[in-house]
Amino acid sequence: MPNQTAPSPYIGQGLSSRQSLEVPHASCYLIDPHTLMKTIYLSVILGTLLPACVFAQSPDHSPLSDEGVARRAAHTFLFEEFSKGKETTYRGEGDQRNLFETVLSNETIHLSGDVSIELPEGSQRVASLFKYIILRGENLNHLGGIDVAPYSGGGTVERSTQQPNLYRFKLPAMPVPSEGMPPIRIRTQCAEGKTATITQIAFHSQGNLPVQFDDLPYRTLGADQPRVPVQVKIDLQHELSIAGHSDLEREKFFRYYAAPGTCDPSFERWASERNFKPGRQIFKLQPGLVVGYGRGEKLKENPTEPGAADLSFFERHDSSAPKTIPAFEDVDYAMCLNDYPEFMSVEHVGRGTPLIEHFGDAADLAAAHIADQKADGGRTAKWWEVKNESTIKAEWDYHYQKEHDSWELLAQFHNDVAQAVHTKTPTVNVGGPTSAWMQLHVNQFGLYRDQARFMDLTRDHLDFYSHHFYENMGSLGAWERRDKGYSGYLLGRLEATLDMLQAHMEETDNVKPILITECGSLQAGRGAADYWLRLRSYSAFVHKLMNRPHQIDLAVPFVFTNMHWNPNSGNVAFIPTEGASARGPLSDFQPTPVANYFELWRDFDGRRLPVQISGLATVGLNATAVYQGNRLQIALTNMTSRQLSVDLSNFAGDTLNASSIQQRRLRYNDGQVLYEDANSLSDSKAVPVDAEETTVVTFWFDKQIQPTKTLHREFTYAPGTAVTADQTRAFQIEIDDASKIHSAKLIIGVHRNSGLEQAVAGTFNGQSFESHPEWAHQFDQLMAPLEISIPKTWLQNNNQIQIEPQPGLTITSVHLIRDSISEALDSKNSQ
What we know:
The protein is α+β, with helices and mostly antiparallel strands and 831 residues long.
């Protein structure tokens, strides 16, 4: 990779990469981005007809970082020089257009054996603006994995689609663009005795490359405005029990993407020392068993049953899970099956989508593999997903085929696999659909109705449901993008989506745990802003999910200690040093900013305490408090674009004297990712929290924190989801004993294009309410929960809610959060 001779990324520390793993207190690390590089309607026009690119100044007037200057120069180079004379495809009109594709070459190239193709000069400088490289031609299914040299570090990049006439693969995490970058060379191999032909090579953006340069990610958001005062009150008198869960249950949420034993033990020890555990990984059946990774026997098609696997293979094959460190030997984790063998699958597409007539054969193979792993090694994953991201076309071919009910087939296949696995290994939990792209409002909530029907059709066989959530690329400054098409999950959509799924499960008496087996950001690249988008997304997702312990059984951000197959990935905590093996020990690696995610959260744990936020919408700020002995920790995630001054000095309960207050910060400032491990605070009246920052504040008191009561928080959902508010809509919520409730909130999930132009109004048992928060009318695509405080005097055992009509409004779900107080602590840590 470039800049191999650059200094340690920890500027001014005077430490080697290995030494810098020991994090000193009260230190500030500045992460140098140059060192840590990391048929719709289409119109095709020649690049010579392109107008010059347009710069759209963000509302924030803080200076553009050095990285921003470099990326703006690359953007200008793309539109004013590189694309001239090239075929370019656009989506949209005028200055709001997005560059969809740029053709790099129309030369016919015949391939055999080892393949090496150098892309045109300048490609390396603009590559980071795109998502994919596309090869078009003939027999491209004969090509193997792709190394985008030198930027993929000798590994292979992720394949998106591989068919005879099209091969689409992701660009690796590119460094910040500069004029001196080495050219891009595509390296691969043709299968032995096979040939292929390339007729076109193109860069593809998936429609996410605006002609206007987006400078928002390269500014320090909120730096040009005073800090917003916010108060967070912590209740030390009560423990908080969320539907019976009083303990944080750290093991559910502080995971990294791996199965035990899949990397060098030194990385596992490093993660374990920071109280993180492996959480999830994919097992690809075709490459893992049919192609194989060694010289041993390979899985073959049954010679007497075409389309079925010869399961006698498992009588001779050792399927034991890899050896791991002692601390991880008993860890519960998730695995996901994918890439079912080609001999039983739809040809070329759908990542090994089994043919309908071979659903049973595929299920038998899955069950045999899992059972053999348990028999040979004594353990297997607790949770097995049937097929990765099977809600999208690239993973489940039947979504392409209009003659099939693709979701019914998906449910049928999940049921077949679950039955087969449960027969052989009853203790294993089987689930899915391992959803991608959880934009459930699409097609007037048609995608949600598909999800709901999938749950209905699998209710008797699956043990859990699983989903993935990713922030899109270019979503830094989400708060500033509310009226510019932001449709990510971190400003209310995540909560509204999970509430809607839960409401349907409750209504159909089919309540199962949910696993979030991937979450993070789709942002590629290894610049500081790229790293920051991933880091803020990891923390924001995990923070939101940890406050749903009754609903979420596992949450795994897409964060790795290392990747031997893609060593320079922007999602890894460590990359190899110059000349080191990608399979070596930790001592041969250097940290990236991702390592600081593990440091930020390394000791956040304890019993829950109630918190109350005032001064900022809860959609923009999350706060969680936990205690152990005389230690109090508060995690704060600010998803607004304003910098905050948070007053944490207001405690309910006995007066305790803080002997120490420390703040651990991971933030973005002046074009750098900054990690500050232990900033000492003289008091807690003005704790700084920057835009999109997650911070952990720790108090040490002179005596034990001793709550004497428990605040019990329970959730009751009304029947009815994704209901259009084209007329007055009625909902009913039944509770056991209204007289025992201390306080209550009505939560109405809403979706509306163009935000709320008028209040959401209605009645609760005949009493009028309305909600029209200022932030809610500023969205192009609003999907979020609205909170309405309900006086105790309004509550009844049978509660009738009516919501008045509003054009364009969809009520995604309705539920009641009710708090009651017991005079004793909950005797159970969690359920």
